[in-house]
Amino acid sequence: LGTQDSVKELWDLWYSERGGLALARLQQADQLMGDPTSWQDCETSLLQLIDEYSIYFVEPINRLATLYYLQGKYQESYHLCRLILLKLKPWHVGALAGIVQ
Asked: DSSP states of 32-63 as a string?
């Protein structure tokens, strides 16, 4: 496998770690994130996922940090990455990339 293939497999594993329903809901949140007029719905959806699956399913937290970054809420985004994501999964590529931006 090439590096890109390995990274894709790693992302796929993380995204689906709580099963197909959670994955489908993450994908729905991703679609909402693409439309600024849907950001409130996206945030609500991600917060529901976090509530239902706990903070140990870090992908909704990663998406929420991304949403906050897009909204210009840089401190909130940074704190989600640094204080939650990287405490639970210090190898999380998305959180690491988000912090260095």
From this structure: HHTSGGGHHHHHHHHHHHHHHH-TTS-HHHHH
CA distance 97 to 81: 10
Tokens representing residue 84 in the block: 């939650």
Give the Cα separation of 84 and 12 in Å (integer). Answer: 21
Residue tagged 């994501």 (tokens): 85
| Residue 6, amino acid | S
Tokens read off for 82: 């640094």
CB 12 within 8 A of CB 52: no
Q: Which is higher by pLDDT, 19 or 39?
A: 39
Query: What is the tens place of the pLDDT at every residue in 50-100?
Result: 999 988 888 899 899 999 999 999 999 888 877 776 666 766 666 556 555
